[in-house]
């Protein structure tokens, strides 16, 4: 949601002006603004209060400015009258009245223990009247100090400052700090107002003596970075009306909240982010506060939420925030007892379950409702919700509503008239959005990440006040309506990742002068703007990936002075980067120009962006210089050359923050330098496919955060350095190099969380270390094409992830960074072909030990890995048999055991490996008949050749009785006679049963009757195409594996078990087959396809 914060003093001068934010990026900041408004001290600090009349005028101006917020008139007016009753002199008073000397000395003593880097307290001088000091308020009659406004001032930030952190840097410089709060404040006997918010006291405890400042009515320690236990002495402040202990960093906790029950006058309580997990009585305590109007307990880890409450005492409650606390609860019944008073209800991120109750419609006065992030809630939106005619802000994202969104078409007139913010993103809703034009007061609309379809309606013109529109990640199609470009208040337009398209010109943007965020990426837009176009807007966020912007580099971007995010990826730009762009880029934090054909020499530029992606272009020259701010640098697939040392070894005054470095597929050469210790933050390194050589430097071991290392396809040599065990490696790809020596045992001892180990095509020797079995999370083990010897470790069944089809909740191969992600990639030999895996890598389970000198039997344990997809043990010296338990490998897709010395029969249960699509058992010592099944006979004879004792289809070698039954009967005509005897016996009964079984049914089944007509029309091989849907074997487009060449089929040689196979793969004349049997086979096959 987005709101502008504008506060003016009584003269109309702007005191605070902050720009709008989107719902997705600034909801936290937005809620902070709301809390800030409820705080009455904002009136005192931002609006002069010399007399009640001016104060009330300022209050009215504030109220009018913030029409978008809930109007808690009763609360604000009560607090206002309570404060103005104290005639203090922050701005005016009797000039003859000066502060009390004792109190002046107390303030000076208090100041001595404070650190004040920005000299905010410079006016606190010993020779002046303390009532004139900054932040000090005195009673203008008695001179007593009654107020201390020592909160850190809020910077007047722009959206760019907030996104880049410039505002936080400013605020940090002005924070007060200290190791102790001096108890000299106890001398301020008349102090009723103390504000230390947004400072930094480094985790020191809240002083117990605060509980002795009994005159306090207002105590604000919001985000002042106190820590430890909250002192129960605060319960002595019986006059307290406002208490905020909201934390932001250090652990602040309370074991119980009994002391709060003594604060009978309390009207405002904020303990958000305070650890209250042990405060089991929290609800009973706050229920004892009859005057409580606002309660903020966000993310307090509250232990429970009672479904019922005998007597609800806090009926004055106007604002209730219980967000980010509970797990697996329903909305409690007692909450509905507050339906007459509650204006603001925040229950987001609570994992509430069940449906939204219809009783939600009883909150007739409700202006703000947030149920977002309750992912276990489901069902439909209750119709009673649309009767909340005072509702202005409604947030229900990340709830499993599902289904059509058409119910919104039943909106009552009063609901659509007042609603200003609506968020239904990530709710799995489908349908059109024609209804949005009814919400005429809407300023902020978020429907992103759903399955909405159809065009954006032209009725959007009715939403003349619209400021934020987010429709990203849907299935919306068509062109953008002309009425969209008439929304002159629009500041945020996010329509990326849809099916939208059309030509966009400069005239479309003529009225969008307030636009500051635009994302149209991942659609089919084509921009046709004049090279001299000067846009009317100043964009901070620009997303135009996959839009056609080229071939020339967009020159209008030069006019944008405050860009934070720029995405011109896949934009068909084939131009040289203009020199002025690199000056502009120095202020861009996220820069993405990837997947174009952009040219230019980048040797002499300085990259300062936090994220830089220039991959898949035509950049050349040497590596550019980097600012310490750069965290992600992606330069893969370019023409950059030279050594890496200038980039890696340049010493800087500040520590380098580089986390992701991808320089793969370039022209880098030489050896890696020994200066990796300067990149302590590095987590991912990809130098694959270059011309690098030499040894892997031992200084890489200083990269203790390194989790992914890609050095494939270079010329690295020598042993792996022992120091690499110090890294946090989960992904290792060192394939296609010249590395030698033994595979180190630390790969299993120190890298137990390893997911991928790829060392193929190197010169490693020795045994496979059994420590590999400790890597229970391993998904890919590729040690192929080395010189490894010895036996395969018997403990491979310890790799539990290869026996599990567990789906990762978060993709371990998708490295997320600010506004982007890095997708790991891996090249695997699968089904005889090298394939690159990216998005589907998390589903792969693979072992490849091929092309080594391994010997001994294949351990049976390896066949217990039921989730394994790929197993390649070919070209070794393995012996023994394939165990029967291979049948449990139900996920196996590719099996290659070729060119070994494996013997025995092929296990019958291999026929149940239904996912098996690549099989190579060639050149072994297998014997006996190939098991009969559609699965195993579906492979070509090349899968079985080189096994002299193997027989049966698809091989041309027929099996003898001995090979079929394992007996000693001699091979000859007897076998043929026996085979034909069984064939004709089966055929005899088949003639009778088959004829009447089929033709009888055909009398009643018209679809089957159609089949037999086709049978009668079949001639020769045409039955392939007419009945089976299989092309004619004479068709050149058919693979050779479907044809058994040179085979003559006669009825006397035809075994009943082979009928289906021979029909599919051989040219057969219809007159040679027994019609009733063949008809059964064809009809059943066709019926199953239906």
Automatic annotation (TrEMBL):
It is a single-pass type I membrane protein. The chain crosses the membrane at residues 66-90, 982-1004. Keywords: Cell membrane, Glycoprotein, Leucine-rich repeat, Membrane, Receptor, Repeat, Signal, Transmembrane, Transmembrane helix. Its main location: membrane. GO terms for cellular component: plasma membrane. Residues 417-561 form the Disease resistance R13L4/SHOC-2-like LRR domain. It comes from the Eukaryota. Residues 102-139 form the Leucine-rich repeat-containing N-terminal plant-type domain. The keyword Isomerase does not apply. Belongs to the RLP family. This is Leucine-rich repeat-containing N-terminal plant-type domain-containing protein.
């Amino acid at each position: 949601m987005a709101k502008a914060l504008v506060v003016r003093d009584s003269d109309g001068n702007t005191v605070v002006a902050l720009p709008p934010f989107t719902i997705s990026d600034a909801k936290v900041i937005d809620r902070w603004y709301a809390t800030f408004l409820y705080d009455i001290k904002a009136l005192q600090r931002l609006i002069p209060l010399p007399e009640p009349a001016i104060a009330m005028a300022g209050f009215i101006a504030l109220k009018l400015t913030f029409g978008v917020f809930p109007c808690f008139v009763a609360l604000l007016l009560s607090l206002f009258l309570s404060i103005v009753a104290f005639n203090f002199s922050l701005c005016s008073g009797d000039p003859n009245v000066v502060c009390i000397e004792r109190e002046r000395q107390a303030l000076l003593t208090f100041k001595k223990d404070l650190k004040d880097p920005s000299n905010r307290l410079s006016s606190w001088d010993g020779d002046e009247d303390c009532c004139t000091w900054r932040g000090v308020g005195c009673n203008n009659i008695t001179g007593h100090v009654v107020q201390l406004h020592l909160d850190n001032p809020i910077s007047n930030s722009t959206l760019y400052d907030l996104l880049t952190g410039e505002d936080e840097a400013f605020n940090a410089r002005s924070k007060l700090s200290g190791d102790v709060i001096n108890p000299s404040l106890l001398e301020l006997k008349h102090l009723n107002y103390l504000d230390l918010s947004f400072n930094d006291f480094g985790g020191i405890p809240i002083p117990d003596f605060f509980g002795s400042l009994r005159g306090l009515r207002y105590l604000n320690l919001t985000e002042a970075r106190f820590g430890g236990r909250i002192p129960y002495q605060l319960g002595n402040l019986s006059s307290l009306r406002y208490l905020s202990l909201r934390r932001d960093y250090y652990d602040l906790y309370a074991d119980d909240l009994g002391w709060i029950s003594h604060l009978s006058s309390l009207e405002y309580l904020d303990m958000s982010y305070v650890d209250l997990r042990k405060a089991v009585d929290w609800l009973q305590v706050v229920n004892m506060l009859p005057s409580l109007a606002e309660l903020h307990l966000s993310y307090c880890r509250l232990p429970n939420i009672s479904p019922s409450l005998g007597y609800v005492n806090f009926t004055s409650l106007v604002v209730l925030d219980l967000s980010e606390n509970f797990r697996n609860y329903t909305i409690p019944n007692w909450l509905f007892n507050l339906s007459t008073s509650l204006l603001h209800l925040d229950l987001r991120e609570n994992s509430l379950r069940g449906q939204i109750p219809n009783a939600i419609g009883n909150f007739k006065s409700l202006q703000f409702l947030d149920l977002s992030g309750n992912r276990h809630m489901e069902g439909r939106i209750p119709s009673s919700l649309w009767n909340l005619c005072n509702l202005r802000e409604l947030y229900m994202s990340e709830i499993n509503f599902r289904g059509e969104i058409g119910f919104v078409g039943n909106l009552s007139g009063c609901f659509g008239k007042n609603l200003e913010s609506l968020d239904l993103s990530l709710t799995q809703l489908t349908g059109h959005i024609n209804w949005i034009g009814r919400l005429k007061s809407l300023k902020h609309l978020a429907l992103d990440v759903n399955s909405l379809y159809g065009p954006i309606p032209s009725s959007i013109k009715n939403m003349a006040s619209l400021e934020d529109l987010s429709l990203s990640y849907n299935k919306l199609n068509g062109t953008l309506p002309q009425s969209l470009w008439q929304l002159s208040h629009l500041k945020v337009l996010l329509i990326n990742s849809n099916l939208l398209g059309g030509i966009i010109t400069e005239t479309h943007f003529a009225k969008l002068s307030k636009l500051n965020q635009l994302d149209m990426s991942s659609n089919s837009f084509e921009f046709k703007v004049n090279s001299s176009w000067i846009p009317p807007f100043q964009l901070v966020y620009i997303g135009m990936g996959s839009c056609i912007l080229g071939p020339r580099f967009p020159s209008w971007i030069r006019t944008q002075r405050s860009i934070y995010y720029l995405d011109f990826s896949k934009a068909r730009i084939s131009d040289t980067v203009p020199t002025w762009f690199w000056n502009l880029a120095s202020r861009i934090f996220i820069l993405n120009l990837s997947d174009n054909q952009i040219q230019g020499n980048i040797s002499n530029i300085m990259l300062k962006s936090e994220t830089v992606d220039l991959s898949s272009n035509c950049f050349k020259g040497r590596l550019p210089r980097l600012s310490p701010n750069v965290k992600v640098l992606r330069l893969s697939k370019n023409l950059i050359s030279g050594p890496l040392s200038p980039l890696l070894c340049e010493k800087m005054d500040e520590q380098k923050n580089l986390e992701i470095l991808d320089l793969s597929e370039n022209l880098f050469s030489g050896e890696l330098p020994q200066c990796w210790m300067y990149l302590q933050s590095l987590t991912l390194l990809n130098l694959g496919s270059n011309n690098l050589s030499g040894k892997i430097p031992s200084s890489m071991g200083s990269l203790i955060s390194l989790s992914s290392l890609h050095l494939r396809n270079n010329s690295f040599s020598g042993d792996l350095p022992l120091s690499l065990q110090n890294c946090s490696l989960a992904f290792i790809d060192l394939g296609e190099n010249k590395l030698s020596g033994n595979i180190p045992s630390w790969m299993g001892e120190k890298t137990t969380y390893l997911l991928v180990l790829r060392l193929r095509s190197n010169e490693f020797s020795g045994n496979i270390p059994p420590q590999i079995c400790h890597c229970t999370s391993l998904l890919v083990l590729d040690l192929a094409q080395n010189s490894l010897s010895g036996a395969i470790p018997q403990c491979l069944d310890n790799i539990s992830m290869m026996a599990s089809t567990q789906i990762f909740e978060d993709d371990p191969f998708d490295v997320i960074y600010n506004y982007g992600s890095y997708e790991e990639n891996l090249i695997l030999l699968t089904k005889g072909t090298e394939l690159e895996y990216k998005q589907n890598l998390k589903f792969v389970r693979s072992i490849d030990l091929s092309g080594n000198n391994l010997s001994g039997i294949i351990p049976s344990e390896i066949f217990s890995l039921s989730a394994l997809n790929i197993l390649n043990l070919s070209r070794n010296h393995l012996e023994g048999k394939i165990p029967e338990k291979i049948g449990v490998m139900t996920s196996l897709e590719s099996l290659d055991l070729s060119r070994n010395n494996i013997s025995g029969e092929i296990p019958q249960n291999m026929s149940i490996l239904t996912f098996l699509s690549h099989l190579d058992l060639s050149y072994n010592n297998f014997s006996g008949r190939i098991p009969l099944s559609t699965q195993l006979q579906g492979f070509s004879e090349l899968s079985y050749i080189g096994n002299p004792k193997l027989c049966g289809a698809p091989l041309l070698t027929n099996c003898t009785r001995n090979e079929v039954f394992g007996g000693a009967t001699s091979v000859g005509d007897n076998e043929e006679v026996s085979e034909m005897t069984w064939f004709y016996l089966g055929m005899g009964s088949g003639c009778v049963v088959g004829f009447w079984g089929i033709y009888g049914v055909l009398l009643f089944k018209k679809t089957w009757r159609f089949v037999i007509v086709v049978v009668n029309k079949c001639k020769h091989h045409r039955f392939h195409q007419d009945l089976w849907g299989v092309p004619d074997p004479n068709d050149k487009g058919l693979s050779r594996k479907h044809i058994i060449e040179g085979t003559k089929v006669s009825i006397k040689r035809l075994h009943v078990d082979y009928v289906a196979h021979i029909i599919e793969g051989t040219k057969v004349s219809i007159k040679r087959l027994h019609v009733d049997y063949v008809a059964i086979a064809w009809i059943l096959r066709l019926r199953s396809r239906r």
